[in-house]
Task: structure prediction
Amino acid sequence: MAKTAFIGLGVMGYPMAGHMAKAGHEVTVYNRTTSKAEIWLEEHDGAFAETPAKASTGSEFVMVCVGNDNDLRSVVFGDNGILAGIDKAAIIVDHTTASATVAREINEAAKAKGVGFVDGPVSGGQAGAENGVLTVMCGGEQEQFNSAAPVIDSYARAVTLLGPVGAGQLCKMVNQICVAGLVQGLSEGIAFAQKAGLDAKLVVDVISKGAAQSWQLENRGDTMIDDEFEFGFAVDWMRKDLGIALAEANNNGALLPTTALVDQFYAEVQGMGGNRWDTSSLIRRLRN
Result:
């Protein structure tokens, strides 16, 4: 069992930190909104710190799960940041979906202090976090990954090292590129089935047993048919993630024509007021 800190108790971080506590790890939490941390402490054994620096002091592992590159920098750097309080030889594990650039930036700063760093964005959504079955894609050094993996296991079903720092973020970009295309294809298929007068739910059941099977089909097919989107992974978050992927593609020369198109489709959904709708709400464009 390890002495740990968890920075960021959002939709994902709140249950992830909870799984760490349930597994027996000593957990100190920090959240920008203190009331969220207070609620967490009513449900779990642990402690609260007023700053990321104080939460990190004495911790062997500091897990982070915040919103974006700038949020990440704000909790890592500065007088109250993680690097101001963390002990030498401790390891930062960042679960934020962010750019590979910021991962490498933080790694260099951590190295200068003798601190380890692993970038480990996750896939599985809120349900995966709550059920402790996330897929974690990691970048970092093998030794540091080996040390952190048993702690990560408390909220994951798969933890994989893909390469040096930044590789985890690059893999998450691949994940989101694939999801965007899948959801658009599923939207078009269901909309077509409905226009053709088919029983769409029966169609989804049938094709889920064939080559069209996917997580999105099995978990979002029926709710898309029912026009239900007040849950899940928000359109705003997907646009952030696709923006990161498109920026990286601009740097490395990869061609992402479908991803760029779907990103604009999501912009249309935002224009319809769907900022917080689940990403499967792409189908609303085809109905309206």
Residues 167-195 form the longest helix (29 residues). The beta strands are 3-7, 26-30, 47-48, 61-64, 91-94, 116-119, 122-123, 134-139, 156-163.
